[in-house]
Design goal:
about 425 residues, mainly alpha, 2 domains, 15 helices, about 0% strand, elongated
């Protein structure tokens, strides 16, 4: 309780009017109009504030119950074929917000603004859900929500398993991070439009799997040699996405590892970007490919394979470290890097985060994994694409890794 409650009541009145203005504008006219407008919402918020001020939570509960009963009666008496429940639910929430204006003004302001925005975006929200979102995207959103809000919080945050190398909470976080980054790339593609071309498509695909992106673009360029410049640009820019994604993941897992290897990642990513941009500019002068955007926002299969690889690498690296010292970690990273660069890199960063490895010792195994992965990408380009495509993409992969190793060997750190 504060010394001057009338200030809180003034806030309550203002918030009621604020929400009520939106409802007044959208409640319609005649027999089909909503029953609650600016005055009703103002009084509902004030009733919540008065109830809490006079009787605390108990009296506020009574006020909310009374509002709910009146809202139910209004809903029952509505003549609309599909009256909906938005206004009635908002009215009950407005009463609760009124109580908050007495106990927590800041939270009340935030909630009132949120309610007003949600109410005002009805048309845009319905259009977005019905006309913009695809069914695969809705399914992906549900999968992400369940994974991030239901499954991940339940995972234990402790090291278990062989050699104490596995942390389920960390493994779950990596899955969520991979899905989120992939979804952000998909959203960016949707916003910019499907005609952005193969360079943009390759860059976005790189956040999911650069190796898969290179294989796909190699096959496409083999079928249509006229788009080879665009395909090479997309394939090279997919490696830029790999550098960016790896940097974000390492920063999340272990800031010490990130600081140690960030200059090398920046150098390799910069060379790859320059190489990819060069082919993009070349492609723009010759062809303007059309690129269709997949309805899926991310690849759950890729994320699960990644975390499985990472789990195996964590155990393998811990075992090799125990047997051979730090040399064993490099061997394990090289083997795993053939399939994916993120798994071994995350495993090494996790060892640093758990205090089992010093940050400086993480540079060589991570770059070894990236180098082996670059070799794997080169093999993919040769097997899936043409010689012309391979002769263009492989130098970009080699130059980016040379740049990363060169900076790493100088010992420069942030």
């Amino acid at each position: 309780m504060i010394d001057y409650p009338w200030l809180n009541f003034a806030v309550a009145l203002g918030l009621g009017l604020f929400i009520g203005i939106e409802r007044e504008r959208s409640k319609g006219e005649g027999s089909t109009r909503h029953q609650a407008g600016i005055r009703t919402f103002a009084l509902a918020v004030l009733s919540g504030a008065t109830s809490f001020y006079l009787g605390g939570v108990t009296l506020l509960s009574v006020a909310v119950g009374g509002t709910a009963v009146l809202a139910a009666i209004s809903y029952h008496r509505s003549d609309k074929a599909d009256p909906g429940l938005t206004t009635e639910v908002a009215l009950i929430l407005a009463t609760l917000i009124g109580g908050l204006t007495i106990s927590n003004v800041t939270l009340a302001l935030a909630l009132a603004a949120t309610v007003a925005v949600v109410l005002a975006t009805k048309t845009a929200a319905h259009r977005f859900v019905k006309n913009v979102l695809t069914e695969p995207e809705v399914n992906d959103g549900l999968i992400f929500a369940v994974a991030a809000l239901v499954l991940w919080p339940q995972l234990p945050d402790q090291y278990i398993g062989p050699f104490g190398a596995l942390n389920p909470h960390t493994l779950g976080m990596i899955v969520i991070l991979i899905l989120a980054i992939g979804a952000c790339g998909h959203i960016a593609t949707r916003i910019l439009g499907p005609r952005s071309g193969l360079p943009l498509a390759g860059f976005v695909a790189g956040f999911i799997s650069s190796t898969a992106a290179i294989g796909s673009l190699a096959g496409r360029a083999k079928r249509d040699p006229t788009i080879i410049a665009s395909a090479v640009a997309g394939a090279t820019l997919s490696t830029v996405a790999t550098f960016i994604q790896l940097a974000l993941i390492l920063f999340t897992i272990s800031t010490a590892t990130f600081s140690a290897i960030a200059p090398a990642l920046a150098a390799g990513g910069l060379i790859a970007a320059i190489y990819g941009i060069g082919f993009t500019l070349r492609a723009l002068k010759t062809v303007n490919p059309k690129e269709s955007v997949s309805g899926s926002a991310f690849s759950i299969k890729t994320a699960l394979i990644l975390v499985a690889t990472m789990a195996v690498m964590l155990v393998l690296a811990a075992g090799l470290e125990k047997m051979f010292g730090q040399k064993g970690i490099v061997i394990g990273a090289a083997v795993a890097g053939i399939a994916d660069t993120h798994g071994p890199s995350i495993s090494v960063a996790s060892l640093v985060a758990s205090g089992k490895l010093v940050p400086e010792a993480s540079i060589v195994p991570i770059l070894t994994a990236m180098t082996c992965n670059a070799v794997s990408k080169s093999v993919m380009a040769l097997s899936a694409g043409s010689i012309d495509f391979s002769l263009r993409i492989i130098p970009g992969l080699v130059l980016s890794m040379i740049a990363a190793w060169a900076i790493a060997m100088t010992g420069y750190v942030f």
